[in-house]
Design brief:
Blueprint lengths: L7 E5 L4 H12 L3 E6 L2 H13 L3 E6 L5 H15 L4 E4 L20 H28 L3 E6 L12 H21 L4 E8 L5 H7 L3 H8 L10 H11 L11 E4 L8 H14 L14
Parallel strand pairs: 1-2, 1-4, 2-3, 4-5, 5-6, 6-7
Helix pairs in contact: 1-2, 1-8, 3-4, 4-5
The structure holds nicotinamide-adenine-dinucleotide.
The site of nicotinamide-adenine-dinucleotide (NAD) has 31 residues, from helix 1 and helix 6.
C-alpha cells in the first residue's frame, strides 16, 4: 500500500517550486492533495500534472498573508474531505516577492516587516490554530513548516526573512511539545539553495555563476525541489513517527562547513576560473 494512502494533505504554496514538488510527491504516495496558493494558473497546471499521473488534487485560492483565507483553506478542506492529516506550511514568494522584504533594521519599511512576518511566521501560527482541532479528531496528524538555512545563518539585508525563518524553528519546537500528546507531530525543514522553476530561469542566464555557487556545497551541487519533497514525505510518514520538534537541514552540507576553509576553497575556485560571473542570486530570496 502507498505510504500516504487515505491521507488528506494541504500544501500552502503548492503550485510550484518546493511546494509544487511536495504536492506531487504526496499525491504519488496516495495522498489526496489540496494546493493552497495565490497563483491559480500555476496551481491548475500542477493539479493537471498530478491527475495525469493518477493522483488526486484540488485547489483552494489562498493568500496566507490574510487570516480569513487561512481559515477558509482549512474549512474548505474539512467540508470536502472530512479529515486533514497533513499540513505543509511552505508559501513564500521567493522570486516575485523578494524585494518586498529586503533590507536591514534601518532601511526596511514597517509595512514590509508586517507583510513578511505575516507570510513567514503568522501564517504558520494561524494554519496550526485552525488545523489542530481537526487533527485531534483524527487522532493525530503531521505538520511540516518550511524553514531555511537562513533560520540559523545570517546574511546582510535579510532581517525580515531571517527573523521569520528563525521564528519557524521556534514555533515548530513549541507546537511539537504542545500537540505531541494528541498524536500531532510538528517538524520543520531547512533547505539550502533549491533551484526551483523560478530560480532555474535566473541561473540559466548565468551558468558560470551557478557552477561557482554549486562549489559552495560539500556535495558540489545545489538542491532540486524533489530533495525537499522527499523530506516532507518522510516526515509525514509512519517511518518518522518518533520524530517531532525537529528541523531537518536538507542543504547538501552547506551549514556544517568550517567557514575559513570554505572561504579559501571559493577563492581558489575564482583563481582557477577567472571568467566566473559571481553575480547571481546569492541566496534563495534574490
Ligand atoms: N528555493 C530555495 O532555495 C529555498 C531555500 C530555503 C527555503 N526556501 C523556502 O521554501 C519555500 C518555498 O520556496 P520556493 O523556492 O519553492 O518558492 P517559489 O517562489 O518557487 O514558490 C512559492 C509558491 O508560493 C506561492 N505563494 C507566494 N506567496 C503566497 C501567499 N501569500 N499565499 C499563498 N501562496 C503564496 C507562490 O504562488 C508559489 O506557488 C519558502 O518558504 C521559502 O522561503 C526556499
Amino acid at each position: 500500500m502507498k505510504k500516504h494512502h487515505h491521507k488528506v494533505a494541504i500544501i500552502t504554496g503548492g503550485a510550484q517550486g518546493i511546494g509544487g514538488a511536495s504536492a506531487r510527491k504526496l499525491a504519488l504516495y496516495g495522498a489526496t492533495v489540496i494546493i493552497a496558493d495565490i497563483d491559480e494558473e500555476a496551481s491548475k497546471k500542477n493539479i493537471k500534472n498530478i491527475q495525469s499521473s493518477g493522483g488526486n488534487a484540488s485547489f483552494i485560492k489562498t493568500d496566507v498573508s490574510k487570516s480569513p483565507d487561512i481559515k477558509n483553506m482549512i474549512d474548505f478542506t474539512y467540508e470536502k474531505f472530512k479529515r486533514i492529516d497533513i499540513l505543509v506550511q511552505n508559501a513564500f514568494p521567493v522570486i516575485s516577492g523578494a524585494s518586498r522584504v529586503y533590507g536591514d533594521a534601518v532601511s526596511v519599511k514597517e509595512e514590509e516587516w508586517d507583510y513578511g512576518i505575516s507570510v513567514l511566521a503568522k501564517a504558520i501560527y494561524l494554519g496550526t490554530k485552525h488545523v489542530v482541532p481537526i487533527m485531534k479528531q483524527n487522532d493525530g496528524g503531521s505538520i511540516v513548516n518550511m524553514a531555511s538555512v537562513h533560520s540559523i545563518l545570517q546574511e546582510p539585508g535579510m532581517l525580515v526573512y531571517e527573523a521569520g525563518k528563525a521564528a519557524v524553528v521556534g514555533m515548530t519546537r513549541q507546537m511539537a511539545i504542545e500537540y505531541g500528546p494528541y498524536g500531532i507531530r510538528v517538524n520543520a525543514i531547512a533547505p539550502g539553495h533549491i533551484v526551483s522553476e523560478g530560480l532555474k530561469a535566473v541561473w540559466d542566464k548565468n551558468p558560470s555563476g551557478l557552477k561557482f555557487f554549486e562549489n559552495q556545497y560539500p556535495v558540489r551541487r545545489t538542491g532540486i525541489p524533489d530533495d525537499i519533497a522527499n523530506g516532507v514525505s518522510f516526515l509525514c510518514s509512519e517511518e518518522a513517527s518518533f520524530i517531532t520538534g525537529h528541523t531537518l537541514a536538507i542543504d547538501g552540507g552547506l551549514t556544517i562547513q568550517l567557514q575559513e576553509q570554505f572561504g579559501l576553497r571559493q577563492a581558489r575556485y575564482i583563481m582557477d576560473n577567472p571568467d566566473t560571473n559571481v553575480f547571481g542570486p546569492s541566496a534563495e530570496e534574490k
